[in-house]
Amino acid sequence: MAIRTIRIMGDECLKKKCKSVREVTPRVRELIEDMYETMYEARGVGLAAPQVGILKRIVVIDVMDGNPLTLINPEIIYRGGEQTDEEGCLSVPGKCALVTRPMYVHCRAFNENMEEFVVEAEGLLARAICHELDHLDGILYPEKALEEPHDVEEE
Ligand code: NI
Questions:
Q1: For the residues of 78-112, what is the DSSP string, one character each?
Q2: Is 132 tagged catalytic?
Q3: pTM of this prediction exceeds 0.90
Q4: Each residue's pLDDT tens digit, 74-131
Q5: How many angstroms does the Cα of residue 117 sit away from the middle of ligand 1?
Q6: What separation in Å is there between the alpha carbon of 25 and the centre of ligand 1?
């Protein structure tokens, strides 16, 4: 496993639409392992492959609920409700801003064995899924924020 370099806003990789994964090759498995390691090291709750420069539809999420989630070719099939809260991104370091997202989402995806599954999420997990899936279409949260991103207050 290895920690990969996180691309920062302005990097072309973060503006691209990513390609679907056809097969989980050893290379893809290694990428996923590296994405977890990179996310944990940066103390993030989610990371999308384009954030480490790979234009594939792969996301890892861990909202510290004891349930790390690997999403390959994910698609949101249901959205409901609304939540507005501060959001940050490892590609926009030290900043955050208010973003409105659905309170509930159902997301269909494939796991590392290319088995299809559906995750029903609410709250922070729903927010994380929406945020990370946006990355796969080249969208960063400042485009959707209700305000200019501002510095995270140090405590
Ligand atoms: Ni992000």
A1: EEES-EEEEE--TTSTTEEEEEEE-SEEEEEEE-T
A2: yes
A3: yes
A4: 999 999 999 999 999 999 999 999 999 999 999 999 999 999 999 999 999 999 999 9
A5: 23
A6: 25
